[in-house]
Structures are given as structure tokens and as C-alpha cells.
Specification:
This protein is 27% helix and 34% strand. The protein has three helices and twelve strands; from the N terminus they run ββαβααβββββββββ.
Length: 225
């Protein structure tokens, strides 16, 4: 007689005898298959968050590489303040070189020298079409100079005298020259050259035909954002 291994619950086959251990073997196989299925399901559950995390990391890296400024990259964007590289804007006095000696050489009084040396001095240079304005303010006083480029006008000098000057400006707005015009014999002529440096600071160089002293004043730009 043939011995056929029949799964549990299969009966009624004529002439076929079921092996006595067949049912137990099939039951064990079912258990093993069930465990294997559970293991595979757990693996799938683990794979999904890992795959999702890898995808998010890839997207994050891509976003970062697109938005961040990479050193040496042509795509890097350098944020510069308004009026960068020009004399326009608000400036704060940071330091002076030989300015007191220069004023003393011109005969400026002690009180006026003290006021001019104040480190709380601000200069604002504005433009409205052909009209220009320089506002100079200290903790004690403020004054405003209105003018047009290359047109002579009168202002008060360091010693308080009324003098005539003309202001010129280069095409790139980096250098502004205030040149005093002689209106009477023996009058001292003072020139002031404001120039923007490569680091976007400003240097003011003051000279006179009646003094060998060269004074310099250094400013930093305010409201750089």
C-alpha cells in the first residue's frame, strides 16, 4: 500500500493510508511558516522608517546644498549693505590722526578743537537728484550742508569763518573732494578728501597750504544691514 502524507483535515481518500506522523509534521510546518512570516513583517516595518529617514536626509542635504553659501562657489551670494562702496550713507567717527595738531596749527581755539575731536560725531551724506546734503552731528551740536557738485557755495570753516568751497565727486561715488577757494589774500586753503576704502570704511584726509601736518579721520558705516 502507498503511504501518502496528507495535510491535516484531508480524509476520505479510498485506498490511501495516512502516515501517523503526517499531521504533526504539517502542524509544525505551519508554525514555522507563521514565524517566518512574522519575521518578514517585522523586517518590512524596520525597512520603511529607515528608507523614509534616508529619503528625508537626502532631501535635507539637497536643500542645504542649494541654500547654503559654499566657499569658493560661484553661486555664493555676498550680502552687502546699502550704498556699499560709495560715500553715501551714515558714518560714525572711530579715530583721528594729527587732527588736533592740524587745527592748532591753523589757530583754531581750544573749545572748537574739543568739539571737533568728539568721537560721538556722525556724518550722513545724502543725495536727491542733483542736490546733496552732508549732515554732521555731535552730542552738543549739529549742522547741515546743502550743495550741488562743482558749484561753489559758502560754508563755515573749522575756525568759524565763512569760506567759499567747491565739491567734486568721482564717477563711482568713492571719493568726494571739498576744495576751498581763496577769496582774500593770505587766506589759508583747506582741502578735505573723503574716500571709501576697500573694506567699506571711509577715510577723511585734511590738508592746508599753510600747514605741513596731514590729518586723517576714520569712519565706519552705520546701519550696514
Amino acid at each position: 500500500m502507498r503511504v501518502v502524507f496528507m495535510p491535516p483535515g484531508v480524509t476520505g481518500v479510498t485506498g490511501v493510508r495516512t502516515h501517523p506522523h503526517a499531521a504533526a509534521d504539517f502542524q509544525q510546518a505551519d508554525v514555522n511558516n507563521g514565524r517566518l512570516k512574522m519575521v518578514e513583517e517585522q523586517k518590512d516595518k524596520l525597512r520603511k522608517p529607515l528608507a523614509l529617514g534616508a529619503k528625508e536626509d537626502a532631501e535635507s542635504d539637497s536643500s542645504t546644498s542649494d541654500n547654503e553659501e559654499q566657499p569658493g562657489s560661484s553661486k555664493a551670494i555676498v550680502k552687502r549693505p546699502a550704498f556699499y562702496g560709495s560715500v553715501l550713507g551714515m558714518w560714525r567717527l572711530q579715530s583721528s590722526e594729527f587732527f588736533d595738531e592740524f587745527l592748532q596749527d591753523l589757530g583754531v581755539s581750544h573749545l572748537r578743537r574739543r568739539l571737533s575731536l568728539n568721537l560721538g560725531t556722525f556724518e550722513e551724506i545724502l543725495r536727491d537728484g542733483d542736490n546733496w546734503t552732508i549732515r554732521i552731528s555731535t552730542p552738543i551740536k549739529a549742522k547741515e550742508i546743502n550743495f550741488q557738485i562743482q558749484k561753489p557755495f559758502e560754508i563755515k570753516s573749522f575756525d568759524g569763518k565763512l569760506v567759499k568751497v567747491v565739491i567734486t565727486l568721482d564717477a563711482e561715488l568713492k571719493k568726494m573732494v571739498v576744495r576751498q577757494l581763496r577769496t582774500s589774500p593770505g587766506e589759508s586753503l583747506v582741502n578735505i578728501v573723503r574716500e571709501v576704502l576697500p573694506d567699506d570704511s571711509m577715510r577723511s584726509t585734511i590738508t592746508s597750504d599753510q600747514s605741513e601736518i596731514v590729518a586723517r579721520r576714520y569712519y565706519t558705516r552705520c546701519n550696514a544691514e
